[in-house]
Write a structure and sequence with these properties.
Helices cover 41% and strands 15% of the residues. It is an alpha/beta fold. It has a single domain, classed as Rossmann fold (3-Layer(aba) Sandwich). Strands 3-2-1-4-7-8-9-10 form an 8-stranded mixed sheet, with helices on both faces. A hairpin with a 2-residue loop joins strand 9 and strand 10. The longest helix has 27 residues.
Length: 240
Amino acid sequence: MTVTLITGANKGLGFETARRLLAAGHTVYLGSRDLERGRDAAQRLGARAVQLDVTDDASVASAVKEIEAAGGLDVLINNAGVQAEMLPNPDGPPKIIGAEELTADIMRRTFETNVFGLVRVTGAFLPLLRRSAAPVVVNVSSGLASLSGVTDPDSLAYTYPGVAYPASKAAVNMVTVQYAKAFPAFRINAVEPGFTATDLNHHAGHQSVEQGAEIIVRMALVGPDGPTGGYFDANGPLPW
């Protein structure tokens, strides 16, 4: 039985990914900062809930102990993320804080979850993943992480004015590559789910969670002969 942990999984892409992997036969842990919300989501799916705040060392350590005691871990999906530079706007599309208004606090809050949280969780679960016969790590990135995309005037990513979120996801891509080189027995990849309507972007996205979860699920299911150290969307490899 393949055991999978998904961070930030009580709603949105994480929830849909859990649903699909359960259907594929995985045992799935839904990581959630709020345990009650996690339990409610897990009950609806037939998954297992675990309290997991990626920004808190003690929370992550407790989740490791709980999952280790239950048998171990094969697949880690680092899905939890924030887009602190995107603010709700009741009169129209969300407001995005660009370079002129960027503060160190916005940058820090974004990196704390999207980068440091990912590293915290991955590092903590490495001992369990090493025991797996086929360990897999999927890091949920973004098309905005592509330097090729944000510097190409013909790309939609070029028009995005924010700084903190793209920078954090570009860091996720670099972390992905370096981890993949360090652990060649693992399959470790970054994925771009597309602009999906979720709470992260105040439902401004243009595609469904079913569409967005497609590449996450696909890379969670890769075998030992699958790709590693790559950056993919539903159509295939993406330019860095």
